[in-house]
Amino acid sequence: MNLRALRTFVEVVRQGGFSQAAEVVSLTQSSVSKAVRTLEDELGVPLLSRIGHRSELTDAGEIVYRRALSLLAERRDMIDEIDDLRGLKRGTLRLGLPPVGCGVLFAQMFVTYRERYPNIDIALTEHGSKRLRECLEDGEVELAALLLPVADHFQYQAVRKEPLVVVLPAGHALAKRKWLDFTALADAPFILFEAGFALNGIIMAACERKGVAPRVTARSGQIDFIVDLVTAGLGVAFLPRMLALKHRHPGIVLVPLREPQTDWHISLAWRSHTHLSSAARAWLDLAREVHGGPAVTL
What we know:
The protein is of the alpha/beta class. It has helices spanning 3-15, 18-25, 29-43, 59-85, 102-116, 129-137, 198-210, 223-231, 241-246, 278-290; strands spanning 48-51, 54-57, 91-97, 120-126, 143-147, 154-162, 164-169, 189-193, 215-220, 236-240, 252-256, 264-271.
């Protein structure tokens, strides 16, 4: 059975369609359709039910999808183990990072890692936390930066813990407060990250504990744009302290958020009971080396 066809089928399911999958696997839409048809012909059963522009898994498709994930993960693990036989002279670091905070935390690490291990390729995947968890579970990445707590079937190494701060427009009625909680912010419109970002869940869970039903006025996946929206007076936002300090300017004010269980605690996670390549272990060692400094204060 062709593993490339299996991967193509998996991406059709993941991406929700043939055209979206074609972009991910770098094939034409017709080639993706042909790969899935070939797989169906080989197995003698339909794998997808085409309903208009949508495709849904058949019962057989569910089985093939689940087994394909395992086969593809096993293949990647096999390659990682073979790479380990070469030490750190060759191999690939398959790393998943979120768009939020990865520059501040990991940019210098990439430089140092490249200097130490120039023959190790870095295959970087960037997604929100939900998608990164899926990539890690499926073996698409070997390490992923995830917010704690992580699922029981993952192991992790803590990287950085930062409190959240409230980002308000300069001149806001609450801008001179020493700290804020969600009760004080109950009437303020919120600017949140797009769906799939774990930080949203932290904020919404804390609001629910306080009995606050926030009004979300905008969402974005870009910190710069979120800060611009705050500056323009559209609402208030919430950022980990180190990221807020990086984007600080005279048009905004940063006020500490005093709410339990709202720290942004990022880790590097990997699947339990699986082989961890030398390239991945070297990245974890470097993370311990780099992120042991003192916390920054406002």
